[in-house]
Design a protein that fits this description.
With 355 residues, this protein is an alpha/beta fold. The chain has a domain at 2-193 and 226-254 and 292-313: Rossmann fold, CATH 3.40.50.720. Helix content is 45%, strand content 15%. The strands form three sheets. The chain has a seven-stranded parallel β-sheet with strand order 3-2-1-4-5-6-10, with helices on both faces. Strands 7-9-11 form a three-stranded mixed β-sheet. Strand 1, helix 1 and strand 2 form a beta-alpha-beta unit. Helix 1 packs across helix 8 (227-240), helix 4 (92-115) packs parallel to helix 6 and helix 7 (198-207) crosses helix 9. The chain binds nicotinamide-adenine-dinucleotide and thymidine-5'-diphosphate.
């Protein structure tokens, strides 16, 4: 069986659903259920004998030790993290605690677990650490996309904490021989993404008749990948990646934020026109920029393409349409996650940003 951390979050939940759709190997989902963890994402699974859930912090040494000795996973995929840049600006301590200390404690548990294995089990074991392209910092226009050889230059508390966790994972391979794989993926979008991130926030705000807040001039560029393409890449790296290596994952799909917001509005105009017949584009407002806002990310995905034969299946237009369709088809999901705590966050992040 495999152990997945953070499986109640956006990418982890999609990963578990995709995994079990194509595979009978059981999954243990270990999640602390922070604000971003939503058991409803996996509502189809309880009762499925291939799926088990454990409420546990990745930083809880005793809890993780017990789970490892009880379930004896042949691989661990570590998605668990605090993942939102704006929250890392308001409360960086949570990011240090989970992304740095939590990952360190998890690796310590894995070190003990791994050291007691026989040679065959050791050779087959994998620890796959899921990370982000944001560890590389910001690109100028015209600079080549991030390759795996690029130096780390994180600029936000989020990316700095992820960079630290990548280094700890790397050290475990070099020092203790644990077969660690690291993936650094670009921005994901798709079903079940918490509506604090750009694309789902724009969809739920548009439908609620609220403003669509674009930071600064909206010309910041991100490289977008549909979530199931990321999940397929993680499965492929787990299956055939070389221990100790890192793999950058991206869709060769750079977009300026403002263009994305226009694309979302265009889809909504077709799929669920406003009652007054006007375009959702009228709800776009420019608000104060994010401090330290990285200008551009772009991923050079040639290594995973040539070594492992992975390529994205979705184009941006098919992926974005599926995403908007999912949110239109799941209004109850979106309503339930916009709880009191969510409203407090929206007030904290957007209340002080003048248009
Ligand atoms: P998310 O915020 O939606 O989900 C995070 C999950 O981790 C939640 O279920 C949460 O409850 C759980 N979690 C948080 N702290 C925990 C802890 N201490 N112990 C156990 N569980 C804990 O995040 P996501 O967008 O699904 O991202 C998953 C991973 O992928 C993260 O490591 C992130 O850095 C990385 N990543 C995300 C993106 C993206 O665009 N979302 C892109 C590249 C890489
Ligand atoms: P986000 O989804 O938070 O991902 P990340 O910061 O990890 O790239 O943001 C994507 C881009 O969209 C980023 O440049 C910030 C911008 N953005 C806005 O303009 N308005 C918003 O309300 C949000 C949440 C993000």
């Amino acid at each position: 069986m495999i152990l997945v951390t953070g499986g109640a979050g956006f990418i982890g939940a999609n990963f578990i659903l995709d995994w079990l759709a194509g595979n009978d190997e059981p999954v243990l989902n270990v999640d602390k259920l922070t604000y971003a963890g939503n058991p409803e994402n996996l509502a189809a699974l309880p009762g499925d004998p291939r799926y088990a859930f454990a409420l546990c912090d990745i930083g809880d040494r005793r809890g993780i030790d017990a789970l490892l000795s009880r379930h004896r996973p042949r691989a661990i995929v570590n998605f668990a993290a605090e993942s939102h840049v704006d929250r890392s600006i308001h409360a960086p301590g949570d990011f240090i605690q989970t992304n740095v200390v939590g990952t360190f404690n998890l690796l310590e548990s894995v070190r003990v677990y791994f050291s007691a294995m026989g040679p065959g089990e050791k050779a087959a074991f994998r620890f796959l650490h899921v990370s982000t392209d944001e560890v590389y910092g910001s690109l100028d226009k015209g600079e080549p996309a991030f390759a795996e050889t690029r130096g780390y230059a994180p600029n936000s508390p989020y990316s700095a904490s992820k960079a630290a966790s990548d280094h700890l994972a790397r050290a475990c391979f070099h020092t203790y021989g644990i077969p660690v794989l690291t993936t650094n993926c670009s921005n994901n979008y798709g079903p079940r993404q918490f509506p604090e991130k750009l694309i789902p926030l724009m969809i739920v705000n548009a439908l609620a008749g609220k403003n669509l807040p674009v930071y600064g001039d909206g010309q910041q560029i991100r490289d977008w990948l549909y979530v199931s393409d990321h999940c397929a890449a993680v499965r492929r790296v787990l299956e055939a990646g070389r221990p100790g290596e890192t793999y950058n994952i991206g869709g060769w799909n750079e977009w300026a934020n403002l263009d994305i917001v226009h694309a979302v509005c265009g889809l909504l105009d077709e799929m669920k026109p406003r009652p007054d017949g006007l375009s959702y584009r009228g709800q776009i407002v420019h608000v104060a920029d994010r401090p330290g806002h990285d200008r551009r990310y772009a991923v050079d995905a040639r290594k995973i393409e040539s070594e492992l034969g992975w390529r994205p299946a979705e184009t941006f237009s098919t992926g974005l349409e599926k995403t908007v369709r999912w949110y239109l088809d799941h209004p109850e999901w979106a309503a339930r996650v916009q709880s009191g705590a969510y409203r407090d966050w929206i007030e904290k992040n957007y209340g002080a940003r003048n248009e």
